[in-house]
Amino acid sequence: MVKGIVFDLDGTLVDSVNIHLISWIEACRMLGISIKINNSMIDLIKDLVGLAAEDIAYIITGDEVKAKILADVKRRIYLGKINSIETFPGVVDGVKELKRLGLKIAIASSTSRATIEAVLKKTNIYSFVDAYVGSDEVVKRKPEPDMFLEAMKRIGVEPREAIVVGDTKYDIAPANILGAISILICWRRCNEVDVKPTFYAYNMDDVVEIAKILLKMKVVKS
């Protein structure tokens, strides 16, 4: 029986991927790192969204010191744009429904713990989340499974009792490694992933549909 659900945050619950991308572009320009719209660097960053800022910055710069500076600048820029972040349609009602079903809810995000908290409070879903884990709280970040395992521990469930919901391979692959049910969710952007989730949710209009899927799969009691 499933007892808990672990969500990714950006691109899964909140519509923030483009804000991350804009923040990366502004940070690179501020530090004199050559980056142009529609070039390969932009495409690279799009593909890497879902990883921790430090890891993306290192791939961009190839230098640990420069990567730390770039990640810090990007993080500050992103936090300055936090008021423009919104949940996807139906997320608040969806989270409420999952709680009604008796599920514990956790967040596992590649952003820092402080950033997760700020976004959750701004988007009015903070009170429904039982635990959250940021990239600064684990040794091995996504795509390793450590962050998801820690989130499951914090809500008191084993991987076999958990569902992981995310929008990229960086969420699905760790869930599969742990043996949890994985659901690939897509909103406006539908990226193909090279790992197979337990369940595809490409056409879900809002997170309320997740509750219906769980009932259909007979993994929770109504």
UniProtKB/TrEMBL annotation:
GO biological process: DNA repair
UniProt cross-references to InterPro entries, sorted A to Z: HAD-like_hydrolase_sf (IPR050155), HAD-like_sf (IPR036412), HAD-SF_hydro_IA (IPR006439), HAD-SF_hydro_IIIA (IPR006549), HAD_2 (IPR041492), HAD_sf (IPR023214), PGP-like_dom2 (IPR023198)
Molecular-function annotations in GO: phosphoglycolate phosphatase activity
Similarity comment: Belongs to the HAD-like hydrolase superfamily.
The protein, known as: HAD family phosphatase
UniProt organism field: Ignisphaera aggregans
Organism lineage: Archaea, Thermoproteota, Thermoprotei, Desulfurococcales, Desulfurococcaceae
